[in-house]
Specification:
The protein contains 5 helices and 4 strands; from the N terminus they run ααββαββαα. The protein is of the alpha+beta class and 135 residues long. The longest helix has 12 residues. It is elongated, with a radius of gyration of 24 Å.
């Protein structure tokens, strides 16, 4: 009888899946060589992508430096964004909207509410923040 389309697992694959389902570990898992120092140095970190925007690999660490520089205070409405359950509402904004431009003078701490406002009239916001921070 001919198969009615679709993909069928080989007997070997079926056996492996059955074994895994029973709680047996994959015998090939973890059988790799650890990274050598040479390989670590040669490895180039990839850019970080969030919501379709590309950021440099050090973005997560850099934004924390900016938060600390700005004392965890939104530079627009002056709300303190650290503690009191508001930590998740702090965000780091690129003044020129170029997520690859991580110069300190191009980054500013904003609360989520103020940051959302910057999604409209971007040219006006660029001019406003440049005057505000003296860039």
């Amino acid at each position: 009888m001919a198969s009615q389309g679709g993909y069928h697992h080989s007997q070997e694959t079926k056996q492996k899946l059955r074994s895994l389902k029973l709680g047996n570990k994959n015998p090939n898992y973890g059988n790799h060589n650890p990274w050598t120092e040479k390989r670590r140095k040669a490895h180039k970190p990839r850019n970080y992508i969030k919501n379709g925007k590309e950021y440099l690999p050090n973005w997560r660490e850099l934004r924390k430096i900016i938060y600390k520089r700005d004392e965890w205070i939104c530079q627009e409405c002056k709300i303190h964004c650290h503690g009191n359950g508001t930590k998740d509402k702090i965000q780091c904004h690129h003044v020129d909207y170029n997520t690859m431009n991580n110069e300190y003078k191009n980054l500013i701490t904003l609360c989520a509410s103020c940051h959302a406002k910057t999604n409209f009239s971007k040219e006006d916001w660029i001019k406003y923040f440049i005057l505000k921070i003296g860039g």
